[in-house]
Design a protein that fits this description.
36% of the residues lie in helices and 16% in strands. It is of the alpha/beta class. Helix 1 (26-33) crosses helix 7, helix 3 packs parallel to helix 4 (124-138) and helix 7 (216-227) runs parallel beside helix 8.
Length: 334
């Protein structure tokens, strides 16, 4: 892989602001999904090139800093205390272990270090520890992201003051399908958390999961919710369901790979200036499927052999794929 800059400059601020919309209708998005595949790829890739260098990919690494025993009932999640998945619970990691993991991630080419904790919402004493983690990772010169569940105003303020770059809080699916997946937290709860984070001046990382048995309209609905936020999420992770034995979604029919590629393409069209990340599920994706995703606008991935608790391609495998595709590392996710 190469890290040198190309001679071409890609400045988002100088682009046609008319391409950024927040008023998409479900029928418009449905029409995009129904385009002939080649037409959709052509449209998404052309727009992608207007906002980004299509041969650069931003790399993040995700670490579970507190694992399992979550009180929520998210049907996809092995960390829920309600399901018997064989997952061993782990308390909040010591600071030195987190920093050691971040340092190793940086040596592998990651520019952003993401820390996830299985909480419905953190306690104030938990935030004390997370603040120290954020500060320590930032001292390594890396961007920081955390996902901790719902936040209070004071907790959000403290995270902002710590220098936190991104807060992840996914919508998961459409508003209509949401009750089929989660009952312990409302869709509005999620939207309220996003607003709190945005109002505090923290960058938003927000996406969802596909392949949970949802319909085409639900995938369109999820992207509509994201694209019609007052400001698009700076980072949009798109996860393919990883089925875990013991969770309610184990045994769900798999999503057609081309439907996943279509979802990435439509996300790029709706949110052209956002970083669109291939997240969970990449172990089930062929190199060819991932290459199509990179072509239509995915420009961020997670490195590392684990995403919280599920498997992820190892860094060496990703580097080999990048080399085959002529992709190099983006220096920053901004």
């Amino acid at each position: 892989m190469h890290a040198e800059k190309t001679s071409e400059s890609f400045s988002k601020t100088s682009l046609d602001s008319g391409l950024i919309r927040h008023d998409w209708s479900l029928s418009e998005i449905g029409a995009l999904f129904e385009l002939p595949f080649n037409d959709l790829l052509y449209r998404a890739h052309g727009l992608y090139r207007r906002f980004f260098d299509p041969n650069r990919v931003q790399v993040s690494q995700l670490l579970s800093i507190k694992t399992g025993a979550c009180s929520e009932d998210c049907a996809y999640c092995p960390q829920s205390a309600r399901y018997n998945t064989g997952l061993e619970t782990e308390s909040l990691m010591p600071l030195d272990e987190v920093i050691r993991s971040a340092r190793e991630a940086r040596s592998q080419g990651a520019t952003r270090f993401c820390m996830g904790a299985a909480w419905r919402s953190p306690k104030d004493r938990d935030i004390d520890h997370v603040v120290e983690m954020v500060k320590g990772v930032r001292e390594l010169g890396m961007e920081t992201c955390v996902t901790l569940g719902m936040l209070s105003d004071e907790q959000t303020r403290r995270l902002k003051e710590s220098g936190l770059d991104y807060y992840n809080h996914n919508l998961d699916t459409s508003a209509q399908y949401y009750s089929e997946i989660i009952s312990t937290r409302s869709y509005q709860d999620r939207l309220d958390t996003l607003k709190r984070v945005r109002d505090a001046g923290i960058n938003v990382c927000c996406g969802g999961i596909v392949g949970m048995g949802e319909s085409d309209d639900d995938r369109a609905g999820l992207l509509m919710e994201l694209a019609n936020l007052p400001k698009h999420p700076e980072s949009v992770p798109v996860n393919m369901l990883v089925q875990v034995e013991g969770t309610p979604l184990d045994g769900t029919p798999g999503l057609d790979p081309l439907s996943f590629v279509r979802t990435i393409a439509v996300a790029r069209i709706l949110m052209p200036a956002s970083w669109v990340r291939l997240s969970a599920g990449r172990t089930e994706m062929s190199d060819e499927m991932q290459a199509l995703c990179f072509f239509v606008g995915a420009n961020s991935i997670f490195y590392g052999d684990k995403l919280l608790t599920t498997d992820n391609p190892v860094a060496d495998s990703d580097r080999r794929l990048f080399d085959r595709l002529g992709l190099s590392l983006a220096e920053t996710g901004h």
